[in-house]
Amino acid sequence: MNNLNTQEATLLRMKYQQDLDIRQIASQLNLKESAVKMCLKRAREKARQFYAETID
User: Fold this and answer.
1) Structural domain count of the chain
2) Range of the domain at 21
3) pLDDT tens for each residue of 3-50
4) Chain centroid offset of residue 41 CA
5) Neighbour tally for 53: CB within 10 Å
């Protein structure tokens, strides 16, 4: 998670460790649901890419 910025790491933790849904995350961070979805998508892609690079 060190390769992610603070917001990306926070969003992933809220989604997967705290098991919050998109609406709850958006409400807590004062973001639109669509913004949360897009940020989560980008954070997951970034994490996947980093993981893939460490395997190679």
Assistant:
1) 1
2) 6-55
3) 899 999 999 999 999 999 999 999 999 999 999 999 999 999 999 998
4) 7
5) 9
